[in-house]
Amino acid sequence: MVIVIQCTDQIGLVAKISGLLAAEGFNILSMHEHVDKAANLFFMRLEVDKQTEGDRPLEQKLHELLPQGALIRVNPDPVKKVIVMVTREYHCLADILVRNYFKTLGATVQCVIGNYTNLADICRRFDVPFHHVSFAGSSAASEKQILDIITQYEHDYIVLAKFMRILSPDFVSRFPGKIINIHHSFLPAFAGANPYRQAYERGVKLVGATAHFVTDELDEGPIIAQQIISADHSHTASDMIKAGKEIETAVLAKALRVVFDDRVFIYKNKTVVLE
Amino acid sequence: MVIVIQCTDQIGLVAKISGLLAAEGFNILSMHEHVDKAANLFFMRLEVDKQTEGDRPLEQKLHELLPQGALIRVNPDPVKKVIVMVTREYHCLADILVRNYFKTLGATVQCVIGNYTNLADICRRFDVPFHHVSFAGSSAASEKQILDIITQYEHDYIVLAKFMRILSPDFVSRFPGKIINIHHSFLPAFAGANPYRQAYERGVKLVGATAHFVTDELDEGPIIAQQIISADHSHTASDMIKAGKEIETAVLAKALRVVFDDRVFIYKNKTVVLE
Amino acid sequence: MVIVIQCTDQIGLVAKISGLLAAEGFNILSMHEHVDKAANLFFMRLEVDKQTEGDRPLEQKLHELLPQGALIRVNPDPVKKVIVMVTREYHCLADILVRNYFKTLGATVQCVIGNYTNLADICRRFDVPFHHVSFAGSSAASEKQILDIITQYEHDYIVLAKFMRILSPDFVSRFPGKIINIHHSFLPAFAGANPYRQAYERGVKLVGATAHFVTDELDEGPIIAQQIISADHSHTASDMIKAGKEIETAVLAKALRVVFDDRVFIYKNKTVVLE
Amino acid sequence: MVIVIQCTDQIGLVAKISGLLAAEGFNILSMHEHVDKAANLFFMRLEVDKQTEGDRPLEQKLHELLPQGALIRVNPDPVKKVIVMVTREYHCLADILVRNYFKTLGATVQCVIGNYTNLADICRRFDVPFHHVSFAGSSAASEKQILDIITQYEHDYIVLAKFMRILSPDFVSRFPGKIINIHHSFLPAFAGANPYRQAYERGVKLVGATAHFVTDELDEGPIIAQQIISADHSHTASDMIKAGKEIETAVLAKALRVVFDDRVFIYKNKTVVLE
Questions:
Q1: What is the pLDDT of residues D48-75, one digit of tens each?
Q2: Using 50, 70 and 90 to split pLDDT, how confident is the model at D47?
Q3: Rounded CA gap, C14 and C11, in Å?
Q4: How far apart are CA A86 and CA A115, in angstroms?
Q5: Which of A54, B68, D39, D43 registers the highest number of CB atoms within 10 A of its CB?
Q6: A39 SS3 class
Q7: A80-273 and A2-74 share a CATH fold
Q8: Is D219 an annotated catalytic residue?
Q9: Strand pairing report for D41-48 and D2-8
Q10: Do C203 and B268 touch (CB under 8 A)?
């Protein structure tokens, strides 16, 4: 069973928490904690050896013990529910569908929403519903359509798996800390459109990818994972795109793993990833 | 102040230790722990915000609290004393001498022992004593000479910074867990002599380096740090040697940093590195 | 159009080849060459801007120009035909099936042969024939069955995508330079069975994967690609396996890309990869 | 002997050049070339087995053969002359001084210019002249002083090894393509001041370094080499600085190696690095 805690830092928090768990008969299998001294915040993720039961749940006892305003989750669902949004590129989606099919994603893909139709067939092959929402008309109308689809499905997260349209602040504000995007550059370098073209023009020697939570500032949300691969003068912009796909897939997979595994905390415009 | 603990695992150890520290008025600045479930061992490294004092030291209280046989160090000297042994290659030694000179090594180099004389001059430039011990005659006589030199200096660790002679089991057994070697391959691949030649013949696509504690089995001691760089068909054996030097320097520097910083625990034939 | 050449080295080979191509009206789009001086061998891969035609083919002219015994391929089929063999793990197979489906593999998967049946369904979803060959009985009988299946399909390469049975020297010798395997360690470290268990016991700080051509010496064939990821004391053997899967998939994908793209030359027990 | 060529691209250039070299009796030991098709430029670096001599030098013959305006260097001095400029940090300077002392830098350090005095002693230990130029007063006066020092020494390149003052466009314009800087971020992310602070605030998961030629646009010159290391939430800004030092040293060393080895071509705002 997983327990995650985020609260104001205090002397003796670890002693308090571990003392309570010992008193309640839980054995700690793993414990990761972090203190941001500048922000005076304490973060902890625990795995314990049995599940809670009884009339007075552990979460309540932790709230009594910890500073006011603590965010505490005891025993979050280990299998999350996700909606995936795509445009035309297949690599991130296919990776997600394969892991979903083999039950190694840590989540269930409820449906896929695409603004093109070319990825409908692979969804069908994996028995995952695909909804087509064109952006040919007004963005507002398209977003309305997407919201209508989303409300049909339970979901914990929305994953933008190479969804190439910018979502409105209104849309984004409905799902704070719930939308995960893969951006095809090493942010904050090359935010915005055509990052590989920008990277090519700039003559960089590395190409990167960044998975982050979406906020209403474009490409400025909290970063979850980043990785790079080498590039050189022999890479055209389209070579960079091709090389970038592999790293995008890997970075998004890594980010989803830690998010679905309840290892990611958001504060300020950053993440703490406890693993 | 640093506290390091290695003991048999038990339920509630974290609660006990953090409870004692809170009771004694220490604030925990950082805490890293690891449990090897198979070996039933608990490892912890803490940084707390003040030093111990008074008539009943913290170490004693921890011993009373923890399972019998616990290894506990409270407030180990943050600057270690080291003896460096070399043959002819300069790269690791020079890196150590530079960090020593700028006081960023986490250790003081007491002296350098070399079986050639070409590195005497750089030691002299940094005001570090250099002792020449030829291996032209019998190894036993040379080792005897080295032991005589070593006994002249206080030392916590002996660093083999590209020392290319094999030390006898008798020599090694005098300094258990105290001799650190840099091996120029990704162990256990290419143990023994001429690893780059072996790597070249095998046509590997990566070249590595391994820092490890020395035991009486050649190149088989507990690994502290490893890293690799890419190689390809265009690398001759001597290109691999050249490329390898950079990674050897970096891997040894990393290993020394974590050892001198009291982050490394040895058990079975492995290390736990808490950082 | 691609041209690949492997021959004894000689002074002036580049001048001869580039002169002939200029005379025949080909513009060189890219040229990579390598000389192994110790082996006295010359390797070259060219891309030129048009295809050959006419009554006297370019290959013939190159043979007249180059040293006797030169291996020359002009305009090899850019889409190879492959047979994939698997046991129970899905990650490499799924990656291959996805790329095959989206026509980015550089090859067509003719069929999949598995010694378990759990991967039959994903093959069916991608309309790729799956053949089950049990190894419950004698290996010789199973290999005979596999050979019977293989002969039903045209194929350029056989890919062992986590096929966990050892193929007999007789089987391997029928397909020299045609069988590609992914081994789940950084060869030559941890050859043989259970490499992750071996790596865990040894306490390594990196976990790797190696793609190589299969020869009759187990895990000793020419290496095509290798990569590693970091590990530490917190990785159990099964964590290493999980982490390893990602790198296995990436390394096999990379190896297949360069082999199918006619960038890999085999000689002695090595490869030259021109890219 | 090294030959480097940069010129307008044309069909048959490789044939022409390799033909001339064969006719003149040179054996090509290595050849690297690159064509930027968009820019219509051809780049080549050759190593041949003997040096030129005689009354009609090879450079002249190449000029006759190649398109007008070709940049050709035959037999550039393999040991460059460099002036190093520093502020207070030692890591890049010490690495350069060590390689200089052991004659593995590919260059001779003529002198070091520092705007603080703390690095004078290590220069003295290596018998390298150190000149102190304070920036306490007007920058213009300080730059004038630096120029006076520079004119006392022959030099091919000026290396800014953590020189933390911005040089004026007037200064920079005197040394086009001759000033090499190490910037402590993965450019173009975090250009300008305090990149590690910026990186920390942004919560990035990777920290990088970039070696580039200096132009009059701050941190915008052609990139020679870049590399990154992982960071995470546990890194404070000062941890990032510490981790960054190692990668800065490595990236600058790599950039100097390829520049001093005549492997770097500049065009537009990019480099081609042939190796």
A1: 987 776 657 899 999 999 999 999 999 9
A2: very high
A3: 8
A4: 7
A5: D43
A6: coil
A7: no
A8: yes
A9: antiparallel
A10: yes
Please report which helix (H) or strand (E) contains residue B250, including its range.
helix B237-260
Cα dist from C41 to B84, C7, C45, D275, whole Å: 44, 6, 14, 20
| pLDDT the model gives residue C194 | 86
Chain C CB contacts of B234 under 8 Å are: 34
For B44-71, what is each residue's pLDDT tens digit?
999 998 777 665 789 999 999 999 999 9
The predicted model gives D136-161 an average pLDDT of: 96
Q: C260: helix, coil or strand?
A: helix
| pLDDT band at residue B185 using 50, 70 and 90 as cut-offs | confident
Give strand pairing partners of B207.
Answer: B229
In order, the DSSP letters of B72-95 are: EEES--SSEEEEEEE-S--HHHHH
Whether the pLDDT of residue A54 is over 70: the answer is no
Fold of D2-74: Alpha-Beta Plaits (3.30.70)
Interchain pair D94, B98: CB under 8 A = yes
> How many alpha carbons lie under 13 Å from residue C23 in its C-beta half-sphere?
9
**CA–CA separation, C96 and C255 (whole Å):** 12
Task: Tell me the per-residue pLDDT of D67-126, one tens digit each, with 9 for 90 and over.
Answer: 999 999 999 999 999 999 999 999 999 999 999 999 999 999 999 999 999 999 999 999
Task: Determine how β-strand C130-132 pairs with β-strand C157-160.
Answer: unpaired
Given the residues A95, A219, A261, A262, the one annotated as active site:
A219
Asked if A28 contacts B33 with a C-beta cutoff of 8 angstroms, the reply is no
| Pair of tokens at residue A220 | 């400025």
The residues facing C243 across adjacent strands are none
**D24: which strand partners?**
none
A237 to A203, B4, B41, D232: CA distances (angstroms) = 10, 51, 52, 30
Superfamily of domain C80-273 in CATH is Formyl transferase, N-terminal domain (3.40.50.170)
Give the confidence band of B216 by pLDDT, cuts at 50, 70, 90: confident
Q: For residue C98, which residues of chain A lie inside 8 Å, CB to CB?
A: 90, 94-95, 98, 122
Predicted confidence (pLDDT) at residue C156 exceeds the cutoff of 70:
yes
Cα separation of B252 and B212, whole Å?
Answer: 9
Size of interface A-D (CB pairs under 8 A): 79
Give the highest mean pLDDT range of A40-54, B96-110, D188-202. B96-110
**Cβ contacts of B49 within 8 Å, gap of 6 or more:** B1, B26, B27, B28, B29
pLDDT digits (tens, 9 = 90+) for B84-98: 999 999 999 999 999
Q: How far is A102 from chain C (nearest CA, A)?
A: 8
What percent of chain C lies above the pLDDT cut of 90?
71
Residue D261 has pLDDT above 80, yes or no: yes
Give the pLDDT score at C196. Answer: 85
For chain C, the domains span 2-74, 80-273
Residues whose CB is less than 8 angstroms from the CB of residue D176 and which lie 6 or more positions away in sequence, other chains included: D215
| Residue of B69, B68, B65, B50 whose CA lies nearest to B3 | B50
The ipTM is: 0.94
Residues present in chain A in total: 275
Distance from CA of B72 to the nearest CA of D (A): 25
Distance, CA of A30 to CA of D217 (rounded, Å): 50
Q: What is the 3-state secondary structure (H, E, C) of D227-242?
A: EEEECCCCCCHHHHHH
CA dist., res. D133 & res. D167, Å (int): 13
Neighboring chain A residues of D228 at a CB cutoff of 8 Å: 186, 206, 228
